Amino acid sequence: MAKYKKTRTGLVFLIIFIALAISAVAVTLSSYDIIEGVPTWNNVLGQEDTSEVAKVGENKDRVCFIDCGQGDCETLISGEHVTVIDSGPQSTKHQTIQQLKDLGITNIENLILTHPHEDHIGGAYDILDNFNVSKIYMVKPSKSNTPKTKVYLNLLEKISSKGLSITQPEIGGTIQSGDFKMKFLSPDKVYDDHNNNSIVIRADVDNKSFLFTGDAEKEPENQMLKKYRSDLDCDVLKVGHHGSHTSTSDNFLKAVSPSIAVIEVGTGNDYGHPKGSTLKKLSNCKIYRTDLNGMIVITVDSRNLNVITQKEKSQ
After folding, report:
1. Tens digit of pLDDT per residue, the chain (315 long)?
2. CB of 85 closer than 8 Å to CB of 184
3. Closest CA to 218 of 271, 260, 278
4. Whole-Å CA distances, 281 to 189, 239, 274, 287
5. Kind of pairing between the strands at 74-78 and 81-85
6. How far apart (Å, rounded) are the C-alpha atoms in residues 211 and 238?
7. What is the DSSP letter of 37?
8. What's the angle, vertex CA 175, arms to CA 171 and CA 179, rounded to 5?
9. Which residues is 309 bridged to in the sheet?
10. How far apart are CA 207 and CA 300, in angstroms?
11. Would you say 183 and 172 are in contact if contact means Cβ atoms under 8 Å apart?
12. Which three-class secondary structure state does DSSP give residue 182?
């Protein structure tokens, strides 16, 4: 019994000592303004608090690269005006829709589906069910290569059931979405390869520019170099085809000369995206990737670009 009391007394003293030590450390750190409250799991895991990301209607023009796994989904927000480029794959549709809702989106002015591959249109069916979409842009495929996939045919049926129609982009033409002025740069002809039929868009806002390339590969890149070289020079490049070696040719990248490159790619994907050769080409850029950074939000404020990421890692 005496031994038990002695052990219990020692344990009590140890607990008191630890408590006093923690208090002392807290007081010391607070004097340097390091502790402002109890840290969250996001702090511990090294993830930034995305609650600072402005929502629809707030006075910040921004481009949000949605974390949709192995696929593309970009959202341009300017006041109440929202343009969504691609919708990610079916496998992450709930994740994609939740991120769009977290941004405060209820109405989508323009839904631009760059090309009919599942990783770009897979979530569009559910986007049409969850948001009020005013206008849809798609490229009409060639007769010899019209998609016959279930996801594509179901999407066409859904568009029709919503009383919507498809608008083909006028290459070289522009549309306005809030402060964003968007110009269609490709495709200027119908390719048999759906990747090359990707709608390519330059978006300008407050003296800053973004280039969204879908999965366009070297052939349309070369065509844009011939016809729209002066439009290619941009601050932010959405890297083509998830960082595949089939896109981002040397001459094209030289013409774009971005300071920021964003790669939308899934963790551990089967394609080995992004390719090491592409990352090497982009070594002069600040690279952000959805597999490493989660959702990436770039705000344009007084002509400056500010990047907020869901996770801190970057290349």
Report:
1. 444 444 455 554 555 455 445 444 343 333 323 223 332 223 322 334 444 566 776 778 999 999 999 999 999 999 999 999 999 999 999 999 999 999 999 999 999 999 999 999 999 999 999 999 999 999 999 888 899 999 999 999 999 999 999 999 999 999 999 999 999 999 999 998 999 999 999 999 999 999 999 999 999 999 999 999 999 999 999 999 999 999 999 999 999 999 999 999 999 999 899 999 999 999 999 999 999 999 999 999 878 999 999 887 545
2. no
3. 278
4. 28, 11, 12, 11
5. antiparallel
6. 6
7. S
8. 140
9. 296
10. 9
11. yes
12. strand
Q: CB pairs under 8 A, 24+ apart, for 196-202? A: 196/220, 197/115, 197/139, 197/141, 198/114, 198/115, 198/240, 199/112, 199/113, 199/114, 199/115, 199/137, 199/138, 199/139, 199/169, 200/114, 200/224, 201/85, 201/112, 202/231, 202/232, 202/234
> Strand, helix or coil at 161?
helix
Question: In the structure encoding, which two tokens stand for residue 154, read together?
Answer: 């179901």
Give residue 152's identity as a one-letter amino acid code.
Y
Closest CA to 217 of 246, 258, 193, 237: 246
Could you give the CA distance from residue 22 to residue 18 in angstroms, rounded to a whole number? 6
